[in-house]
Amino acid sequence: MTVVESVPLIHGPLVTSRLGRVLTIDITAPQATMVVARDSVLPRASLVVTTAARRMIELSKAGEKVEHIVILGTGEDPIRHPNLREVTENLRALRDKWFQRAKLCIATRSVELEPYEVRSTLGMYDKVLVRFEWGTAKLFSAVTGEKGTSLASMTRALGQLDHVIIEASFFKGDEDNTSAAEVGGWIKKVQEVRPQEVHVLAAPQYPQKKLRAATQKQRQTIVEKLTEETGLTVSVHELEDLVPA
Q: Is the model's pLDDT at 245 over the cut of 80?
C-alpha cells in the first residue's frame, strides 16, 4: 500500500519580485485524509477553505500585509480540482472579509480552457496567470504533448477572459521558441489574447525536454519586439518565485 503524506496547503506570506507579498494556496497538494474521493489525494474543498480561513484570520489579526492571494497546484493543475468553483467562491468571500485590498489570482498551466464552466470560474479572479509561449502548433505539440489544434482553441478561450497575465519563457535545445518564425507567431497570438500584462520568466517548464534558457540579451530582444508591436506592459523576471521550494 502506498503511504501518502499530507503536504501543506498554505504558504506565506512570501515576498516575491513579481507580486509583492503573496499568500499561496495549493489546492492540489497531496493529502492523506479529507480527500475528494477514495482513489484521489486531492484535498476536499472544505479542507482547503477551512485551512485558508484559519490562516487569513491569523494574518489579519496580526496586522500582516498581503497583496495577492494566489491559488496554484503542485500536485495537479488547479483547474483539474473537481471543486474549483466552490473553492473559488469561498476564497473570494474570505478575501473580501479579511484582505479587501488583496488581488485574488490563479496560476495555471492547463491548455484546457474552453469549457464554459472553466472560463466562468476563471472570470471570478482578479488575475489569471497562464503559461503561453508557443508560436506554432508544431512547437506547442512538441513541448506539451497536446494536439497541435489545441493551441488555437486555447488562444480563443484566453481571448474571452479578462485579467489574463501571460507567463512565457524562451528556450533552446530539444526545442527552440526563439526563432523569428516562433517569436512572430507568438506575438500574433498574444495580440489575439489581449492580456493585461506579459511576464517573461527565465526558466523553461518542461523537465522531460533538454532545454536551456535563452540568454538575457535574447529575452530582451523579444521583449522589445513584443512591446513595440503590441504596446503591452511587459516585465522580465529571473526567478519563478510563486511556488515555495
A: no
Which of residues 172 and 3 earns the better pLDDT score? Answer: 172
Of 76, 108, 140, the position where a domain reaches its end is: 108
All three cell numbers of 11: 504558504
Residue 106: other Cβ atoms inside 10 A: 26
Quickly state the pLDDT bin for 66 (edges 50, 70, 90).
Answer: very high
- Cα 21 to Cα 217: distance, rounded to the nearest angstrom: 29
Range of the domain at 72: 1-108
| Phi–psi pair at 47, nearest 5 degrees | -70, -45
Whether 75 and 177 map to the same domain: the answer is no
CA distance 74 to 66: 21
The CA distance from 48 to 25, in Å, is: 8
Answering whether pTM is above 0.90, one says yes
Q: What CATH number should be reported for the domain holding residue 2?
A: 3.50.80
Both 90 and 192 in one domain: the answer is: no
